[in-house]
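Consider the tokenized backbone below.
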């Protein structure tokens, strides 16, 4: 039995490997505790990854490969019985170019480096509803645009400001946003009508994410509402550019859910 450090999707996208042996255990967490177990076919392809160590809701990934050893379909079964399926399309030179959800709810296109550059979401009738466009500077996500299809005059654009020290030290991939790898310090979201939201993020001593602040800024440049570091929601009222009153409540608590 070997101890490996990887994620199921990263292993799967790497293709079949004859170096794998049945019973491999995967370490997915910082405490080096076993987190998943794989089952192999005779040809050495990974076909199932189980997560029996999730006592509350064990999960299982089922993976299907083509004759060239490339992942073409994955299905995750959750402890409550729900399933999520995806398909993967590859270019002749072996690059993943399209990732699609089997229920038809989403379809993503990838660039030559394997980063998602466009995703389209669909309703139950298969009608496109949203499109997301992403652009990068190297591995850093620098811009994200969301369009409601059929009304593309209205959209929002988010740019990202990263903690350079954490990014360099951690050797991130794409935009870092997992629970133990956040390196985003600020996001700046601007709607087509000029309304802007600025969110500030930080981490505690254990590396867990804390949402520190959020403010909504009107096209005039005046702050309309915000959430302070204590989770208090604040609304501002003005007479001209002079702030006349401030109304506060604890209803929001989390600046991530403050609406523009």
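A designed sequence for it:
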């Amino acid at each position: 039995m070997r101890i490996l450090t990887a994620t199921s999707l990263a292993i799967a996208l790497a293709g079949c490997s004859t170096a794998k042996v049945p019973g491999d255990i995967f370490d997915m967490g910082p405490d080096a505790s076993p987190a998943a177990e794989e089952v192999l076919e005779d040809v050495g392809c990974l076909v199932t990854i189980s997560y029996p160590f999730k006592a509350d809701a064990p999960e299982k990934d089922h993976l299907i490969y083509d004759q060239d050893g490339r992942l073409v379909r994955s299905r995750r079964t959750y402890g409550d019985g729900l399933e999520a399926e995806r398909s993967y399309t590859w270019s002749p030179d072996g690059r993943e170019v399209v990732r699609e959800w089997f229920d038809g709810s989403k379809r993503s296109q990838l660039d030559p480096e394997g980063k998602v550059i466009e995703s389209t979401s669909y309703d139950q009738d298969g009608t496109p509803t949203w499109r997301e466009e992403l652009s990068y500077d190297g591995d850093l996500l620098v811009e994200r645009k969301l369009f409601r299809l059929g009304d593309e005059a209205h959209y929002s654009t988010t740019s990202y400001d990263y903690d350079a020290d954490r990014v360099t030290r951690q050797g991130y991939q794409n935009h870092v946003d997992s629970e133990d790898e956040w390196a985003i310090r600020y996001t700046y979201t601007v709607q087509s009508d000029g309304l802007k939201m600025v969110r500030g993020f930080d981490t505690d001593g254990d590396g867990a994410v804390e949402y520190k602040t959020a403010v909504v800024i009107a096209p005039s440049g005046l702050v309309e509402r915000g959430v302070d570091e204590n989770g208090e929601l604040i609304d501002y009222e003005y007479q001209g550019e002079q702030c006349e009153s401030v109304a506060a409540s604890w209803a929001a608590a989390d600046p991530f859910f403050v609406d523009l």
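The first strand starts at residue 3 and ends at 5.
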